[in-house]
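pasting histidine kinase for the record, 416 residues
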Amino acid sequence: MTPVEEERPRALLAGASRRWVRLLPWAVAFVLCVALLPTTLVVLTADYGLNGGAAAALAVAQAAPLLLAVVRPLHAWYVVLVADVAGALVLLTVDFPERLLWPFPPMEIVGYVGLCLALGLRERRRTLLLVWLATAVANVALGFAPPHGFGARGLLFTILGGVALLLGGALRERSEVQRRLVEQETISEAERGRRTLLEERARIARELHDVVAHHMSVITVQAGTAEYRLDSLPPDVREEFTSIAATARESLGEMRRLLGVLRNEEAHGELVPQPGLAQIGQLVEATARTGGPVEFAPCAADADDDVPEAVGLSAYRIVQEALANVVRHAPGARTRVSLSVTGPDQEHGARLTVLVVNGPPPEPPAAPLETSGTGHGLVGMRERVRIIGGTLDTGPLPDGGFRVAARLPLTERDLT
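structre below
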């Protein structure tokens, strides 16, 4: 954005979301200008007896700046106040009936009130106070030379202008507070999503640690006992096994120290062995007993052996979160959980497909069954799938149900 664009003034209510609200100031200013200009000309000439040329000049000076007030209300106020004061002084040169208002006729008061409302919507409190004081000073100063005596009616200009300034300022400050609240809610929502993502990543890291630590422990044991299990190992081979066991123990220690950073005081329950494909059936049975009918189609028995532990853990967590969402948002809905291993093919290696599909609930719940959730359950699913290089497809179904489909790679080529 160039400096010229930054200094370019914006119209009143230009930031409103609705188009008719953005156009409202222009419409009001146009109506006031079109209505007040001829009215001022007629009243000043017919009622006050002012010369036609002077009346036309005053009418233009007092009404036309109202269009400028939409963009630069303070500049328009300078012009209108000078024109109103000049009009009051000019009226002293003619003889008009005592019943008519002076120093400011009614049409000038109407235009000035609209101008003050525009000022209140744009300027700060200090500026509004100075504007009102200038208005009061001008009104009182003119009252020292009244043609027919200074009455209470002459104060309408100051009183109504102050009310308009106060109303416009209150509306502007209320809009500003609402805008800041929306911005703060947006920032809070973004921070909440980011925190949820980081927490989920830490949880995934803790779970993957248990999987990797198991393999590292096996490597350590096998390398450390090789010289006792295998006869007549050459010295260099025995030394190599000893080095592998030492490196594995060192790596395992580093992982445990890292886990100490990731774990918190509430993570003691995660020390149990991590679940996998074999436990999904138990999860489905538990959900069916409490949450509604659930069908389960496991993959072939011999396919379980081809699924890495990290992939099996991710599949379990995805099914767990999907079923939890069914219980929360569609209690009693018929649900189907299926696991299948496909491939390999020319484009991809072997993949595990996890599919959870639920129909609409039998009847809408009177109230949510759970109100303390973060609403970011899908974040954890996506993060797990992303880490192992898979894909996740989620979305509502035409009948009111929901579908979760995850495709997780099983081969080393896809995992890397």
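Residues 3-184 form one domain.
The chain has three domains: 3-184, 200-271, 277-362+374-415.
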